[in-house]
Amino acid sequence: MATLTQKELNLKRFIPILLVLGALAAPMKTVHIDVTGDKAGAEPTHFVPVVGNWVVTQVSGKNILVVDGRQWKRGQPAGGLADKARAIYGARHEEFIDNVKAFAYFPYAVAQGVDNFQNGDISMRFLLLEGALDQCAGILFNLKSNGDYLTVRFNAKEDNLVLWTFKQGKRSFVKKGSENVPLNMKQWYTMKIAVQGTSLKGFLNDKLLIEYTLPEAVTGKVGVWSKTDSVSYFDDYTVNAAN
Fold first, then answer.
1. 128, 203, 211, 225: which is deepest, by most CB within 10 A?
2. Distance between CA 210 and CA 77 in Å, rounded?
């Protein structure tokens, strides 16, 4: 049996380290998803509304995405759900639809152009306009073909950033931000999540508020999220994903 030389042993010892460094240094692909070219007053083309009423509106001469919970208070999926689910998940769309109906009080829209986000960061600007029950905006990620997903959201009714999981028809609290942050209504703010394997970080206005180790690595589609009767604006949705 051949014996490894000391040089070969040293190289073998460093291979795991090199693999980790290589993953960290992997080039990032940036996808900026906006509604600039969409028609104001119509559904967006670069986001697929799954639950709730999502339309394009014009603010100060710029097209932005808005979820309007005032027109949706009965927990109904978005119009044409079957066709939209088929476009997102093909033959597996029926399982997806069943789970969507279980979470129908939580509006969300799926971003086009990001098929499987695993490592990287997602950021956006948001503005909370109104809402009697809730005043929410969030980043949806880890969306599976069965409708399970994760979201990091801010709720002005609670002044906090929180990580929630939606799995098999059940919503579960996971982690609250390290401190409450009161935000003014009708002002723009930023939100970001950063994912590396099972490591998740959540930021509000560039301040780190959530650090959490997920039970499994993130994979799946991404999007924007809201809750019940919230009326919220979304803009500058950007995904930086490791290739």
1. 225
2. 30
- CATH classification of the domain holding 219: 2.60.120.560
Residue 3 covered by a domain: no
Domain-located, residue 21: no
Domain holding 104, by residue range, is 27-242
How distant is the alpha carbon of residue 71 from its chain centre? Answer: 23
Tell me what pLDDT residue 72 has. 53
Q: How confident is the model at residue 70 (pLDDT cuts 50, 70, 90)?
A: confident
Asked if residue 22 belongs to a domain, the reply is no
Distance in Å from the first CA to the final CA of the chain? 40
Count Cα neighbours of 112 within 13 Å in the Cβ-side half-sphere.
11
**Phi, psi dihedrals of residue 151, rounded to the nearest 5°:** -145, 140
How many domains does the structure of the chain reveal? 1
Q: Is residue 15 included in any domain, yes or no?
A: no
Read off the pLDDT of residues 153-183 as tens digits, 9 standing for 90 and up. 999 999 999 999 999 878 899 999 999 999 9
* Cβ–Cβ < 8 Å for 221, 143: yes
